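FAQ

Q: What does a record look like?
A: Structure on top, sequence underneath. For example:
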């Protein structure tokens, strides 16, 4: 089945930007951020707090995490907790981060409730360069910590000596010029942001905590997993890397081929109808095992069957897109094994294909897949791959 995989992998290799000449460019791609769950300031045992339930629901738009915690001990327990937002490293100018919300602090749109009542987060944010906190430098020159949008204009408005100091400190690096010949810079720092709060649990009390935030969705305007790209020897390393990261199988490839073949067949059928008129017979669509040139003039399949790869053009005529999501399961609340764990991955649209490495999956709707476990301790990075048409 192309929509689910039964093997788990803990490998967390870095995602490489897909750069295919004539197919996609870096400007058309974005890199997903790795989301996390709650982290408690101190480790407490099951005699203090028990995670009765944890529910994680991930779709391309929103990620929701629900916890049900119980205080089974005799004393009131107050615990500081934090939710680290994804790290942002701007030192590589070729990476275009998929930042879901235009907010300099809460850039994933994080919100939370306790027993359905809103909770206010206290956010802390720092800029790091070469292991040093450079937040004071950025504040001194009124530069945005998250340097997107008007960053170049902010730099241009600074006196030349300010830019020289930022450059000498290694905070900005020259990167060509604009159309008017003025120098452009890219930032050389990373951002760490954490939201924090405190919960108090009275004896015998069960509390429901719900987190909600926008999903960082990495996008490529093509996919190396479609034919004939995945059969290109020069791209073999990228294909193998994705197979390992997302547990891709032959059924997944068949699903990608079917999406492309269906689009090409529908397009050919539409063109034929336009040529012969609505009152004449329309040749049937080609099958996924026959090349475009493998049909006889009357529409029947010819005896000569071309290899499947010949069915597909090098150009991305079907407007195939690739979307990626990351969620760090190991960075969640680690009080003790979770008594009742449930994770749902929803691909959003039925005509998309999804693959990820997780055990014991069950399809629960045309778009969603569920994993459940008892006395479960989450481990590893969940990497989700979606492929479909734009």
């Amino acid at each position: 089945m192309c929509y689910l995989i039964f093997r788990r992998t803990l490998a967390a290799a870095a995602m490489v930007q897909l750069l295919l000449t004539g197919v996609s460019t870096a400007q058309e791609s974005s890199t997903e951020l790795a989301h996390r769950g709650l982290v408690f300031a101190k480790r407490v045992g099951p005699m203090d707090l028990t995670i009765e339930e944890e529910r994680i629901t991930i779709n391309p738009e929103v990620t929701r995490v629900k916890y049900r915690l119980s205080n089974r001990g005799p004393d009131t327990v107050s615990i500081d907790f934090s939710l680290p937002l994804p790290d942002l490293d701007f030192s590589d100018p070729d990476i275009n981060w998929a930042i879901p919300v235009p907010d300099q602090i809460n850039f994933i749109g994080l919100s939370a409730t306790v027993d359905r009542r809103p909770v206010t987060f206290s956010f802390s944010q720092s800029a790091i360069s070469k292991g040093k906190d450079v937040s004071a430098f950025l504040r001194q020159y009124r530069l945005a910590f998250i340097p997107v949008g008007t960053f170049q204009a902010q730099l241009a408005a600074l006196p030349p000596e300010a830019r020289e100091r930022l450059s000498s400190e290694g905070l900005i690096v020259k990167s060509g010029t604009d159309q008017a010949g003025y120098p452009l810079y890219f930032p050389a720092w990373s951002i760490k942001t954490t939201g924090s709060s405190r919960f108090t649990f009275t004896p015998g009390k069960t509390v429901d905590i719900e987190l909600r935030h926008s999903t960082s969705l990495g996008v490529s305007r093509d996919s190396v997993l479609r034919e004939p790209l995945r059969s290109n020897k020069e791209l073999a390393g990228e294909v193998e890397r994705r197979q390992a990261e997302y547990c891709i199988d032959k059924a997944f490839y068949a699903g990608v081929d079917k999406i492309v073949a269906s689009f090409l067949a529908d397009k050919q059928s539409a063109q034929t109808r336009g040529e012969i008129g609505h009152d004449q017979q329309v040749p049937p669509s080609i099958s996924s095992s026959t090349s475009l040139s493998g049909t006889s003039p009357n529409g029947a399949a010819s005896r000569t069957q071309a290899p499947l790869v010949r069915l597909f053009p090098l150009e991305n005529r079907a407007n195939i897109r690739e979307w990626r999501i990351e969620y760090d399961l190991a960075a969640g609340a680690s009080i003790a094994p979770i008594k009742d764990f449930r994770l749902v991955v929803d691909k959003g649209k039925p005509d998309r294909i999804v693959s990820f490495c997780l055990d014991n999956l069950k399809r629960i709707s045309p778009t969603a897949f569920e994993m459940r476990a008892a006395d479960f301790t989450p481990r590893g990075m969940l990497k989700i791959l979606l492929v479909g048409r734009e």
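Q: Is there anything notable about this one?
A: The chain has two domains: 29-220+323-389, 266-311.
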